[in-house]
Specification:
Elements lengths: L5 E3 L21 E3 L1 E2 L27 E5 L2 E8 L8 E10 L6 E7 L6 E10 L2 E6 L4 E2 L6 E6 L15 E10 L5 E10 L3 E8 L6 H13 L4 E5 L13 E4 L7 H12 L3 E5 L4 H7 L1 E8 L6 E6 L10 E6 L1 E7 L4 E8 L5 E10 L2 E4 L8 H13 L3 H13 L10 H10 L3 H22 L3 H21 L8 E6 L10 H10 L4 E7 L15 H6 L2 H12 L2 E7 L9 H9 L3 E3 L5 E6 L4 H17 L4 E5 L12 H11 L9 H4 L4 H26 L4 E6 L3 H7 L4 H6 L5 E4 L6 H14 L4 E2 L2 E2 L10 H13 L4 E5 L3 H12 L7
Helix pairs in contact: 1-4, 2-3, 4-5, 5-7, 5-8, 7-8, 9-11, 13-16, 19-20
Length: 811
């Protein structure tokens, strides 16, 4: 059929004085926009598209409209008049993204309150990859935001997609509430990439996060690589490439390894992490050894540069690695460029980084802790093969000093901070000015490594000045989620709580149990082996909290089976038919069935056990939901549902989705299963320990999540099951965060709302400035506090002091 809207968008438009980074066009000058699903006949160009299934009918056709001096596509979402859960549009294209990084575009939504989220899909011959880009929207001031979606943001699935034959791009807006809105999109382009740097992407889903870390570090440096599947590596593909990066490519295909050897023979560089085939390692001058787990906590906690170290790499940086792949240099061919040291600074006796003429090898993956140091490390690795990269980065970083919070220049930031200056802010501001002058001087003298160091110090000092200039608010709830049952990484509970309290935080949420293991002496769940060697962390945390006046809310992950759940427990769950089953009949081996009475008793029993055994201030639910809409459809769920409705389901499981009489009953059945656990645990915990508080970490969009996830948390607040709610509002986009909080405030009723701020999962983890902005947004919305996810090394070392000087200051 013929597409019916032909548009022309000119790239490079001005968005309130800003432009997208220059890059190649993604489309020809003209391209088509189709609403989805495509109707066989369209009565008029602007007609409402007839519904095709319950999920896809909330869209009107796109229109080209001038908006704030930009010719943009307007996407109308008619949620008020449709039962569909999303509005979607298709863009037929013909793209080869085998070396591409993804797409970028200008985006604006004047009213995001009706929106639950946005998803971008790439399609190839009926196969799809998708990414939710709501949390990728970067707030850069003004009305327009620039969205950048990487191929690596696309959800990994078993479906193989041919990136060389992308034939369709789909954009979907998910319903949040029954209200209409529109959003605008312009200048969709290919993300820029350097043609001389390739990041080779493994097909292993477990390696994806480490590839993302490498890519994010290079992107932050202004050195974005091309992203190529390792299976596409060939001599032809690597022509003109200076450096190939292997972020974690354990089972590198033989042809790819051979292509990389030829690349090195031709003078190209290779940077690899954690694993290398011995044939390639030998060519680079490295001898590979076996895997080595840490023998004691913190054994591989620091990386110290040697005299043979990489140019521009930091002398010392933190990395909380738990194991390494041992490797040694070959005499005359390579050297140890950095060594592992433990948390106390003692040499661990193992190489952290090896370097040769053609290669660099790090004996573990790249982690996100000490993020500024990791960027410098990556620059040092690439600078060995592309010396100009260091000069380019130095010039870029010095020019960007002052880009902090709402300010885009040093002068603007300095003037605003001076206007509200206090002694702490003034001291940091003076340091920022001094380091900025030093950075500019070093750049003129072509001392690029020193210029980069001084620029980073100037920017850090300016950020500290901005944070220190903020006002505190006495009496608000200030919490931190802590993933490790024994405290902040490398710290015990006494030090963890003492530092939190000193910086104005008054509540902690330590993760003390999951679906299959307890981190305390439990009679309900298998007990972690660490408890036998380290002692009872709940008792230690409670004692420290009492000493420093901090509230302790024990955090329980429900249903989800973590990797440290004992194999015997997992086998028993499988044998007893207690694992969740997907809609297609496959078993979800990492999730328990939420309607199974025995599984429900685990979740209730752990909460009651924690409340009885420890002087806790609260118990805290997490994952108190179904995994998604596609679980659970096990035989037990069918039996229990049929008993609830009093009749058999003729066609299982299809009828519970397609039969209009059964579908709402099925959704209520799912909600009731989760609510039963919340109600019983809440009542039991309060009986066991009067005054204890019950709370939950929640998905953000109650009207949708109650159906898709069975998480009916508005009802839990109304019924008094929760004392406070912590929606996980982890977007880095502060206007979106503020919109979400305002909606959620209306849903919690008499319960308190303490929104979750996701500092550790933002594109720039540990961003204290953005944390300050979101705390201020929460205060403006009139809520009583907030909880931050999560307390890692960077948050402990850098974020807490920045908050303690200003936004959470005690005095």
């Amino acid at each position: 059929m013929k597409p019916y809207i032909l548009i022309r968008l000119d790239a490079g438009s001005d968005y309130n004085g800003r432009k997208l980074p220059p890059c190649r066009p993604l489309f020809p000058a003209s391209f088509f926009i189709l609403p989805y699903p495509c109707a066989p006949a369209l009565p008029t160009p602007w007609a409402m598209i007839p519904p095709r299934g319950r999920r896809w009918a909330a869209a009107l056709p796109c229109r080209v409209r001038p908006f704030k001096a930009v010719r943009a596509l307007q996407f109308p979402c008619t949620f008020s008049s449709s039962t569909a859960d999303r509005a979607a549009w298709d863009l037929p294209v013909s793209l080869d993204l085998r070396t591409g990084r993804g797409v970028q575009f200008a985006f604006y939504c004047p009213d995001m309150s009706p929106i639950g989220g946005f998803t971008l899909y790439f399609g190839s011959q009926g196969a799809w990859r998708s990414a939710n880009f709501t949390n990728l929207i970067a707030d850069q001031g003004g009305d327009w935001a620039f969205v950048s979606v990487s191929k690596m943001d696309m959800a990994v699935s078993d479906v193989v997609i041919d990136w060389g034959k992308i034939d369709r791009i789909r954009i979907a807006a998910w319903k949040g509430i029954d209200s209409d809105t529109s959003f605008y999109l312009a200048d969709m382009q290919a993300r820029p990439a350097r043609p001389d740097i390739v990041l080779a992407l493994s097909g292993d889903a477990s390696a994806l996060q480490y590839a993302k870390n490498v890519d994010a570090a290079l992107d932050a440096l202004g050195l974005p690589p091309m992203i190529v599947q390792e299976s596409d590596l060939s001599s032809a593909r690597l022509k003109g490439v200076r450096v190939v990066i292997l972020p974690y490519n354990g089972d590198l295909p033989a042809q790819a390894s051979a292509a990389l050897i030829r690349h090195a023979d031709a003078g190209g560089g290779i940077v690899a992490f954690y694993d290398l085939p011995q044939s390639l390692a030998s060519r680079l001058g490295f001898e590979m050894g076996g895997f080595m787990a840490e023998q004691s906590p913190g054994q591989f906690a620091q990386i110290h540069k040697t005299s043979a170290g990489l140019p521009c790499a930091p002398d010392t940086l933190s990395q909380a690695s738990w194991n390494i792949r041992r490797a040694t240099p070959v005499k005359g061919k390579s050297e140890v460029a950095a060594e592992w040291h433990d948390a106390a600074g003692a040499d661990s006796g193992q190489a952290a980084i090896l370097a040769s003429t053609q290669g660099v090898f790090m004996t573990h993956v790249l982690l996100r802790d000490d993020w500024a140091g990791k960027q410098r490390l990556m620059l040092g690795m690439l600078g060995k093969f592309i010396p100009n990269a260091i000069r380019e980065t130095a010039s870029r970083n010095v020019g960007r000093i002052g880009n902090v919070g709402p300010y885009t220049s040093f002068e603007a930031a300095q003037s605003a901070i001076k206007a509200q200056a206090n002694e702490r802010a003034t001291a940091h501001l003076a340091q920022a000015a001094e380091q900025r002058m030093r950075a500019q001087d070093m750049l003129k003298k072509e001392q690029y490594a020193d210029a980069i160091t001084a620029a980073a110090q100037a920017q850090d000092a300016l950020a500290r000045a901005y944070c220190a200039a903020q006002s505190s608010k006495p009496g608000e709830f200030r919490g931190f989620w802590i993933n490790d049952a024994w405290g902040a990484p490398g710290k015990d509970w006494d030090e963890t709580i003492r530092v939190l309290a000193a910086n104005g935080f008054n509540a902690v949420f330590p993760r003390m149990a999951s679906g299959g293991v307890a981190y305390y002496p439990s009679e309900v769940l298998p007990v972690s082996d660490e408890v036998r060697t380290k002692g009872d962390p709940v008792a230690a945390c409670v004692a420290a909290c009492k000493q420093y006046g901090v509230k302790c809310h024990a955090w329980k992950i429900c249903w989800k089976l973590d990797n440290d759940a004992p194999a015997s427990f997992l086998e028993r769950m499988k044998r007893e038919g207690r694992l969740a089953v997907r809609y297609d009949g496959s078993v979800q081996s990492q999730w328990l069935c939420p309607t199974n009475p025995a599984n429900q008793q685990i979740e209730i029993g752990v909460m009651l056990e924690l409340a009885r055994k420890y002087e806790l201030d609260g118990v805290h639910f997490d994952y108190i939901r179904y995994e998604n809409a596609d679980t659970c459809f096990c035989a037990g769920c069918r039996k229990r549902f049929e008993e609830r409705i009093g009749k058999k389901v003729a066609h299982w499981p299809g009828d519970v989705r397609t039969d209009p009489a059964l579908a709402p009953k099925w959704l209520e059945f799912r909600r009731a299963a989760i609510t039963k656990v919340v109600a019983a645990a809440s009542e039991g915990a309060r009986k066991a320990r009067p005054g204890i508080q019950v709370s939950a970490a929640l998905f953000t969009n109650w009207p949708v999540d109650r159906d898709t996830l069975g998480q009916d948390w508005k009802a839990w607040c109304e019924q008094g099951y929760l004392d406070f709610a912590c929606p996980m509002d982890y977007t880095p986009y502060t206007p979106q965060f503020a919109t979400q909080v305002r909606k959620q405030k209306a849903w919690v009723g008499k319960a308190a709302l303490y929104p979750g701020i996701g500092i550790s999962v933002w594109p720039e983890p540990g961003d204290a400035v953005r944390l300050v902005e979101q705390v201020r947004a929460a205060r403006d919305a009139g809520v009583g506090g907030f909880v931050v996810f999560a307390l890692g090394p960077a948050e402990f070392r850098e974020v807490l002091p920045s908050c303690g000087e200003g936004i959470t200051r005690l005095h």
